[in-house]
Amino acid sequence: MIRNRLRTPGSVTFWDVILLSFRLFYHRILFWIRLNFRSFLIALPLVTAPGAAAALYAVAAECLKDPEGIRVDPYREMKQKFGRLVFRAFQLVIVKWGSLFVILVSMFFWGRREVWWLRSVYLIGLYALVMWLLAENYLYPLLAANPEASVFQVVKRSVLLVVSHPFESLILALVSDLLLFFGLILMGPVMLVVPVLQAVLRIQMVWFLTDELIPGFIDPVEYINQCG
Fold first, then answer.
1. Of 64, 59, 92, residue with least CA distance to 208
2. For the chain, which residues make up each domain, given as ranges?
3. 11 phi and psi, to 5 degrees?
4. Residues 76-121: tens digit of each pLDDT
5. For 160-188, what is the HEC assignment?
6. With a cut of 70, which residues of the chain have pLDDT below it?
């Protein structure tokens, strides 16, 4: 349960956060589509894709904290966030895929042992694989929220969120994967909304799990007066 909120303490659940994410996305859908398209253009060279994704999450977080849309220039912020995060985002991708490769190789190695108790080590690899796949949902939101943190600090905090909130992490992963699944099936214009919708959802879930203020649950005027 959420504690430090301007809404009634304990009244917000992670289901509320999911519904809020969809509602906020729908209310500003054209804005989010333009933001996603901007990120897509930056990511076209492919090598810049990690930085573009990190910038998308960082700008999306700033825009969620600006419910009236009057304080944040998303396009200027996109350039600034990209320049600031591109190197760490690239490092994060290397760690992400490198860790996944090590886990899969370990599972393959131990799964082929003839001795049963050695083969059972495969289950540890399977557990690590599930934990890592769930933790991936928190990597970019935490990187965007902590631009000065090292990549390993971001990874550590992501894993700790999964350990402390396994059920919420599983639901978040399922919803995010379903969005991607339908986006890939329908393709076309749908892919203009899926990445940024995933970003909005993951950012607000991180805020919820870390007990941070979620602007969408309070009146915009009250939020501005509270946070400046």
1. 64
2. 14-227
3. -90, -15
4. 889 899 999 999 999 999 999 999 999 999 988 888 887 877 778 8
5. HHHHHCHHHHHHHHHHHHHHHHHHHHHCH
6. 1-10, 68-70, 187-188, 219-228
